[in-house]
From TrEMBL:
UniProt organism field: Brachybacterium hainanense
Identification of the protein by name: Asparagine synthetase domain-containing protein
InterPro entries assigned to the protein according to its UniProt record, in alphabetical order: Rossmann-like_a/b/a_fold
Superkingdom as given in the UniProt entry: Bacteria
SUPFAM superfamilies according to UniProt: Adenine nucleotide alpha hydrolases-like (SSF52402)
Length: 612
């Protein structure tokens, strides 16, 4: 993980007064020391850039071992500095190395290869860039003396208050509404999220102004095959970049489309790699994964969860929710959901030269984002709004009416786009808010112990997709065409409980209608253990534990946004939703400050029965 903070004193502060800048730097270091998830002894890079003259300071800290220049995260001299998270292409890295922050071409950054967020500074100017999908998030605050930007919202919250975080009711409600952040509000009061494909500038002209990349859509007929060819070639090139120099390359494979697309790209790129699937041996995900890897001739292994026998002889998994929450919240800066398990952040970072682990995160972007669920013919504004409300507001029954309305108002600007273009509304919602808010949160946490190697969130590819006419984004046809070019032997193998969207309900006359039955989804309903996932199963003991933790808070941010009766019923098993239950517990764990402790205190163990 790389953490960075950029500070610029406001224009009303006289240039000869250095006290406000020094105070802000000291405050930033205190916040960084408190929020940094890894032990101090694991810090590999700790830099501060404060010119003798000027209004700007930049602080950078990393626990990653130096590797290729594209992942270096820091370029600096007396004239200028750049800091970034994630990975950028070699062309952009070389360009930034040669340029001051005030000289860079905005489009060069917004169309650059990779997945990154960048912060540039000269003695008098601070500039921050997000890319098309902001899967590397940036946040900012404005204090009475300075504008401050960071890739950690928690750091900014501590700088803003000078002591403990101050939590936002709306931000907490927006988190709980979908069990992960999807709106631009953060759980921290006064901390703002920088938009996707945005540039924030703080200079002598203004304390802070924001400009957005204006991408123009193609209006004429679109050649899907040509676009698929471009995307496939780009994925092959990017796969080689991300895996270059690594002693071991591995990739997750499940029964879905996204991991299969990653495996297909690695295979087409000629990368030497192996695959794995997490789950029990009866899992449908494992069965489909093995079929794909057999077809491509790629090694595969199954990683099973630790199952043991209880005193009564039952098969059980021992859950430790408090340890899980501490790991997740420490890693994500207080913004994650412990439903998604993250590794212990005190582990030493795995060098990208040692192991590169590919996942399918973000693959839905190639499939059109949420637009893949729209009718292929003449989707309407109501289709888009109903879809987003169903996707995003699925836990609305757990919130008070006021909290629901506040979150709806937060999401309204994006929902209103449905009146002009339902497809673009649902595509952009996925790219900028699903990928760029909740996926970004978890990617940030994952980066504590290993570098990002997400193939399918390439900024350059996403910008290309943004130029396409809306008609090209529905039905998953582009993703299908890309996979057909990368791995024709795998494109027609059945998925686990899914089909390509364009042939979901019936054969498509334009694509092999005679073999539609052969592509019928693989199912495992007749195997009790095949579907088992202890995190999603309702367990009375775990539900009671969550209720005890969540409903104890009558004064914090949860107290004002929860419908206590609805939460009580849900945690007791009525319409139980595991992501929502874990999100409630995560929020309670965050609100009482336990996530900022040095370690979880005496975490309880709860036994979860596994079906025989």
């Amino acid at each position: 993980m790389r953490l960075f903070i950029g500070i610029r004193t406001r224009n009303e502060i006289p240039r000869d007064q250095k006290g406000p800048l020094r105070d802000a730097v000291r405050s930033a270091y205190r916040a960084l020391d408190r929020v940094q998830p890894w032990p101090q002894e694991n810090t590999t890079t700790d830099l501060r850039w404060v010119p003798g003259e000027g209004r700007v300071a930049v602080i950078y800290r990393s626990n990653e071992e130096p590797s290729i220049p594209e992942r270096a995260g820091w370029i600096g001299n007396k004239e200028r500095v750049w800091a970034w998270s994630g990975v950028m292409g070699s062309d952009l890295e070389a360009s930034l190395r040669k340029q001051r922050a005030t000289d860079v071409d905005d489009e060069e950054v917004w169309s650059g290869i990779g997945s990154f967020a960048a912060l540039g500074a000269t003695p008098d100017t601070l500039i921050a860039y997000t890319n098309q999908h902001r899967s590397e998030g940036l946040f900012w605050i404005s204090t009475p003396t300075a504008v401050i930007v960071s890739n950690s919202a928690a750091v900014l919250s501590l700088i803003r208050t000078g002591k403990d975080p101050e939590y936002s009711r709306i931000g907490t409600a927006a988190f709980l509404m979908h069990a992960l952040p999807f709106a631009d509000a953060t759980p921290f009061e006064g901390v703002r999220t920088l938009e996707a494909a945005a540039k924030l500038t703080a200079d002598d002209r203004t304390d802070a102004r924001i400009e957005l990349d204006q991408v123009e859509q193609i209006e004429d007929d679109h050649d899907i095959d040509a676009t698929a060819e471009t995307i496939a070639a780009g994925l092959v090139d990017y796969a080689r970049v991300l895996s270059a120099g690594s002693h071991e390359v591995i990739a997750a494979i499940t029964g879905g489309k996204d991991s299969r697309l990653v495996v297909s790209a690695l295979h087409a790129a000629g990368v030497d790699f192996s695959t794995y699937t997490n789950g029990l041996k009866e899992s449908g995900e494992a069965a489909v994964g093995r079929r794909v890897t057999d077809a491509l001739g790629i090694p595969h292994r199954l990683i099973t969860p630790p199952v043991r026998r209880s005193a009564s002889g039952r098969s059980i998994i021992a859950a430790t929710p408090e340890l899980q929450a501490w790991n997740t919240l420490r890693s994500t800066g207080g913004m994650g959901n412990a439903f998604t398990m993250l590794g212990a952040p005190d582990r030493k970072h795995v060098a990208v030269t040692q192991k590169t682990n590919f996942g399918g995160q973000g693959g839905e972007i190639i499939r059109g984002g949420f637009s893949r669920y729209l009718p292929v013919v003449a989707p309407a504004a109501t289709d888009a709004r109903n879809l987003l409300e169903r996707q995003w507001f699925n836990n609305r029954d757990l919130l008070t009416p006021f909290a629901r309305e506040a979150v709806l108002a937060e999401a309204l600007p994006l929902l209103d786009l449905s009146d002009r273009d339902p497809v673009q509304c649902t595509f952009q919602a996925y790219v900028t808010n699903r990928t760029g808010r909740w996926l970004a949160t978890m990617r940030h946490g994952e980066s504590v112990i290993s570098s990002h190697t997400t193939l399918l969130i390439n900024n350059q590819m996403v910008r290309l997709l943004r130029t396409l006419p809306s008609s090209a984004l529905v039905g998953e046809r582009i993703a299908h065409a890309v996979m057909a070019k990368l791995a024709p032997e795998a494109v027609d193998l059945p998925f686990f409980r899914d089909r390509w969207q364009f042939e979901k309900d019936a054969p498509d006359p334009a694509y092999k209608p005679d073999t539609w039955d052969e592509r019928a989804p693989y199912s495992a309903h007749d195997q009790p253990r095949a579907d088992f996932n202890w995190r999603t199963a309702f367990t009375p003991a775990l539900g009671a534990f969550f209720a005890e933790q969540v409903l104890a808070d009558r004064t914090g941010p949860l107290a004002d946004v929860l419908d206590r009766s609805a939460v009580t019923d849900m945690l007791a098993g009525k319409r139980y939703r595991a992501p929502a239950a874990w999100a409630l517990f995560s929020s309670a764990f965050m609100a009482d400050g336990r996530w900022l402790s040095d370690a979880p205190s005496s975490p309880r163990s709860i036994e979860i029965a596994v079906p025989d």
